[in-house]
């Protein structure tokens, strides 16, 4: 007999004429067998729609890629995943259920896909990283040359819209002119591999319109002045203006600089691409200028910011995977 039922019997025997009072068990009451164990409530909520075996089949189906299931792009949306779940298990799931399945049970996350050209030759890129890049580094160290990466980019007066903070429900409005004027930027980022203490050097050029061979030859002339007295190994991509007859004649005529070609369609190997990304996310973001001079001023501020940070140019190079030792000059 429990403590509560014994107390109830004692009260009834004490006075049968009075209405018995119920004696509540105190929270810390103990029985002869030990402390009272609270009962566990059954889990509430809706049970999962898919068991572990079904989740495993969905995982295997998703690993095949979206194209294997008849979709055009090899990317997954909630609707596409829901269709695969239905085909694989016969269960029709809502968007919320698919989201919980992906983020909770499968460990997926929402990501922004990268871009890669279909013309790219992966084996050629791998060979360049494994063989050409070590050769370029070794030659630069032996000749005490500076390896300079060159790249071009364009900027338009139409602002590059970035996210900003605003009170909830009040979407900010950026007013600007519908001006499609463009300017071209060229950046030459040089690292000294034989003497990293000398730091990285950045040469920058901007002009209205687009670059042609004559414009790039002018960029090389400015680079020659900027890197005066230094040996330079110039690494750039296979842009047609880089391979033109006039460009080849100019380089052969002056025997400066030594040219090296990046593998085709491999912009991620050029650290100047990270420089453009830094400028466009900071100084050029949400810039609603009226004239190209406004773009030039903002870009110049960004160049000064990058030059003031000794580690930043080296981090651009490290991001490409083409690292050197030491990775950055000491403070």
Describe this structure in words.
With 331 residues, the chain is an alpha/beta fold. The protein is built from 10 helices and 7 strands. Strands 5-4-3-6-7 form a 5-stranded mixed beta sheet, with helices on both faces. A two-stranded antiparallel sheet has the order 1-2. Helix 8 crosses helix 10. The longest helix has 22 residues. It is globular and about 85 Å long. The N and C termini lie far apart (80 Å).
The low-confidence runs, each spanning 5 or more residues with pLDDT under 50, are 1-32, 326-331
Q: Beta-strand percentage?
A: 5-15%
Level of helix content?
Answer: 25-40%
| Strand element count | 7
Largest sheet, spatial ordering of strands = 5-4-3-6-7
Task: Outline the secondary-structure elements.
Blueprint: H1 3-14, E1 30-31, E2 34-35, H2 52-63, H3 78-89, H4 95-105, H5 122-143, E3 146-156, E4 182-192, E5 201-208, H6 213-226, E6 232-236, H7 245-254, E7 258-261, H8 272-281, H9 292-308, H10 312-320
Parallel strand pairs: 3-6, 6-7
Antiparallel strand pairs: 1-2, 3-4, 4-5
């Amino acid at each position: 007999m429990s403590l509560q039922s014994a107390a109830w019997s004692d009260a009834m025997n004490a006075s049968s004429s009075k209405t018995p009072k119920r004696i509540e068990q105190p929270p810390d009451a103990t029985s002869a067998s030990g402390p009272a164990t609270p009962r566990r409530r059954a889990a509430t909520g809706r049970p999962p729609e898919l068991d572990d075996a079904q989740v495993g089949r969905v995982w295997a189906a998703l690993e095949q890629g979206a194209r294997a299931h008849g979709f055009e792009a090899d990317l997954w949306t909630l609707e596409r995943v829901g269709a695969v779940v239905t085909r694989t298990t016969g269960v029709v799931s809502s968007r919320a259920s698919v989201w919980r399945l992906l983020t909770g049970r499968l460990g997926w996350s929402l990501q922004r896909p990268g871009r890669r050209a279909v013309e790219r030759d992966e084996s050629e890129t791998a060979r360049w990283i494994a063989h050409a890049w070590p050769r370029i580094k070794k030659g630069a160290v032996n000749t005490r040359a500076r390896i300079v990466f060159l790249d071009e980019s364009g900027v338009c007066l139409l602002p590059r819209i970035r996210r900003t903070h605003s009170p909830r429900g009040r979407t900010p409005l950026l007013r600007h002119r519908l001006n499609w004027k463009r300017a071209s930027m060229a950046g030459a980022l040089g690292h000294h591999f034989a003497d990293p203490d000398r730091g990285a050097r950045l040469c920058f050029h901007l002009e209205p319109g687009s670059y042609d061979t004559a414009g790039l030859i002018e960029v090389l002339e400015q680079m020659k002045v900027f890197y005066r007295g230094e040996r330079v190994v110039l690494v750039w991509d296979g842009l047609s203006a880089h391979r033109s007859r006039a460009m080849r004649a100019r380089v052969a005529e002056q025997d400066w600089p030594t040219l090296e070609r990046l593998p085709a369609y491999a912009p991620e190997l050029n650290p100047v691409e990270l420089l453009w990304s830094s400028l466009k996310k900071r100084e050029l973001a949400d810039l609603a200028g009226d004239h190209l001079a406004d773009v030039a001023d903002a870009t110049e501020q960004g160049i000064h910011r990058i030059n003031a940070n000794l580690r930043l140019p080296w981090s651009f190079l490290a991001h490409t995977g083409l690292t050197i030792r030491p990775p950055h000059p000491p403070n």
